[in-house]
Every structure is written in structure tokens, then in C-alpha cells.
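queue> pop job 88
queue> type: inverse folding (structure -> sequence)
queue> payload:
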């Protein structure tokens, strides 16, 4: 039971912090990443007490979303328990941060990040 408490509290904390962001402040490219014949895009977000940590976490989130788009996703259950884990297998090359936006409220900072990868790397990245 203790294993579930910490992740649940962290999730609740993140959601509570995100709730402070006005929906109208969220950049359009976050919910609707651009489409291109040359690149594939993904967006991520994170909230943290410092801008630096929020940026790092948001960039990781965006890269995970990109990996989900270009790789394979496998779901595993542990000993028939309710706990499930997600394994994403992908090779990301030449990922660039295209856009970044920070919204600061009180002592928390929410960062939105848009990353891209050239589609020519997809053939090489197949696992």
C-alpha cells in the first residue's frame, strides 16, 4: 500500500499545481502540435518550484510523448496485480526544442515544451 501512496501524492500535487494555470494561457501548439512532412512533433509539460526543474521535466515529458509516437509501447502487469507499467521502446535522434513557454503562479512554475525530430531519422530509429 505504501508503494501506491507516494506516486498518488505526487500525481495529486502535479494536478493541483496545473489547476492554477488558466486554460486560456495554455499555448495552442501544446494541444495541437504542428504537422509537417519533414518533422514529427510532440509536446510536454511540467510544474515545479523552479523554472529550471520545470523545463527539464517538461522536456523529458515531451521526449516521452515523441517516443510513444515513433516507437512501440508495451504494457506489463506485475503478478496479476492492478499495478501496470508502460515500456516505450524508441530511438530518438536529433531532437530539438522548438518552443517553450513558462507560466509562473505564486511559487510554482509551469513550463510547456514543443520538441521535434526529423522524419528522416524514423527509418533508422525503428526497433
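queue> result:
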Amino acid at each position: 500500500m505504501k508503494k501506491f501512496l507516494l506516486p498518488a501524492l505526487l500525481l495529486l500535487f502535479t494536478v493541483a499545481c496545473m489547476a492554477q494555470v488558466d486554460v486560456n494561457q495554455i499555448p495552442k501548439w501544446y494541444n495541437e502540435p504542428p504537422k509537417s512532412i519533414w518533422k514529427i512533433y510532440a509536446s510536454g509539460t511540467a510544474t515545479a518550484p523552479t523554472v529550471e526543474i520545470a523545463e527539464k521535466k517538461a522536456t523529458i515529458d515531451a521526449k516521452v510523448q515523441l517516443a510513444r509516437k515513433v516507437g512501440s509501447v508495451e504494457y506489463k502487469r506485475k503478478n496479476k496485480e492492478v499495478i501496470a507499467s508502460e515500456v516505450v521502446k524508441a530511438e530518438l535522434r536529433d531532437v530539438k526544442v522548438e518552443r517553450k513557454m513558462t507560466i509562473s503562479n505564486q511559487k510554482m512554475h509551469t513550463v510547456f515544451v514543443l520538441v521535434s525530430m526529423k522524419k528522416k531519422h524514423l527509418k533508422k530509429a525503428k526497433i
